[in-house]
């Protein structure tokens, strides 16, 4: 049983590295894997604070900025975070950091760690590709966003969280264009591919670890479920 988690870089490295949270995440994952020998976990990590800071610095120097260059800067940050996670899960992860989801041949350990691939989308898309490759029906998207809201809650105090929505409604909300560094509940390019594949995506907070455990084990959870609808 393989679960795919798109782990936002804002969870691993919001500004500095959150070592305390990583320690708690390690304990959670080991407990989850220990309970059932067939369980495996794919962790696809984003760029977080380092990506934002370096992309912002580039934009301050270069006008107009190049989108591909901004993406490559972000990809480098995801790979730094990925090597950190691969070290944290060294006992469970038996392969190098995955940087091309189309080139993965096998999954020898209990945990696979992946990072950014190429420009044009975020690590959410890589997570969708790995879900397709290994037959996972759900991508769990964990970030500093606890759910999909009816509007941006930072700008609209009347915005409310949505428990469940279909892909058409979600894509109407986020659009189809990938913009480097933009903060969205799920990458628009990844959303289009997930809809095409009939995948479900769960959007939830990556800092509420009891809630993360509930998602992994199929319990009731706080967050948003996005699927093809009825």
Would you kindly provide a brief summary of this structure?
This protein is of the alpha/beta class and 230 residues long.
Architecture blueprint of SSEs:
Layout (H helix, E strand, L loop, with lengths): L1 E6 L1 H4 L6 H17 L4 E6 L2 H14 L5 H22 L22 E4 L8 H12 L3 E6 L4 E2 L11 E2 L1 E3 H8 L13 H10 L2 E6 L3 H9 L6 E4 L3
Parallel strand pairs: 1-2, 1-4, 2-3, 4-8, 7-9
Antiparallel strand pairs: 5-6, 8-9
Helicity level, as a percent range?
40-55%
The assigned structural class equals alpha/beta
The share of residues in extended strands comes to: 15-25%
- Helix-strand pattern: EHHEHHEHEEEEHHEHE
Quantity of strands, as a count: 9
Summed over residues and divided by their number, the pLDDT gives a mean of: 94
- Unreliable runs, pLDDT <50, ≥5 residues? none
Strand order of the largest sheet: 3-2-1-4-8-9-7
Individual helix count? 8
Shape: globular
* Main sheet record: 7 strands, mixed
Radius of gyration over C-alpha positions, nearest whole angstrom: 17 Å
